[in-house]
Design goal:
mainly alpha; binds protoporphyrin IX containing FE
Length: 132
């Protein structure tokens, strides 16, 4: 499947999960606020932007995507990182194990974001003019 569509599908799934969690939090006071917030903001909002961005930004710049391989790596790191964050964030104050989990999965999420920025920045930089 095309990388933009992979991100779009993931985004739609996180929207379903995140907003359902929000409704569950309304009726039952579970400590899910940070998971809900990140599933919706990284999962739904950012993943949709990553997907659309990979497709459109190189088109706007009149260039090609710098690396499809990096985009695939970002996709997996971003998803594993987010799922790990969602499970560990609510309980990181209560146990060192959860804190360690948040640090590991948070670092994965951050690395994935850095990869996106690098890949897009390299993609939309204008090609160097050939000296005549
Ligand atoms: C069915 C839809 C939703 C429901 C029922 C819902 C419900 C909730 C509830 C109960 C809280 C906790 C509020 C508190 O205790 O202070 C919350 C927090 C939050 N929600 Fe939602 N939510 C929904 C959709 C969304 C969406 C679509 C987004 C973002 C795209 C979002 C982003 C957030 C954020 C960022 C917080 C944390 C706010 C803070 O830091 O105080 N929510 N939501
Ligand atoms: C790169 C990985 C990220 C890590 C490791 C991370 C980590 C955290 C942590 C530890 C908190 C405090 C939660 C608490 O007090 O219980 C937090 C809060 C928050 N973060 Fe992130 N974050 C990340 C990315 C993002 C991104 C990309 C967004 C928005 C697009 C975002 C939006 C928020 C919001 C709105 C809150 C307040 C939500 C709440 O009240 O629970 N975060 N984040």
């Amino acid at each position: 499947m095309e990388i933009s569509l992979k991100f779009a599908w993931a985004s739609l799934i996180y929207l379903l999960i995140g907003s359902t969690m929000g409704m569950i939090m309304v009726v039952d006071s579970l400590p899910f606020t940070p998971s809900h917030a990140h599933i919706l903001l990284i999962g739904f909002v950012s993943m949709m932007i990553f997907g659309v961005g990979y497709h459109l930004l190189p088109v706007f710049a009149g260039t090609d995507l710098f690396s499809l391989r990096l985009a695939e790596i970002q996709f997996w790191l971003q998803n594993i990182g987010l799922i790990g964050l969602a499970f560990t964030l609510p309980y990181r104050y209560t146990s060192h194990n959860y804190l360690l989990g948040t640090i590991i999965f948070g670092s994965m999420s951050l690395l994935a974001i850095y990869i996106f920025v690098y890949n897009i920045a390299r993609s939309i930089m204008p090609p160097k003019e050939v000296n005549k």
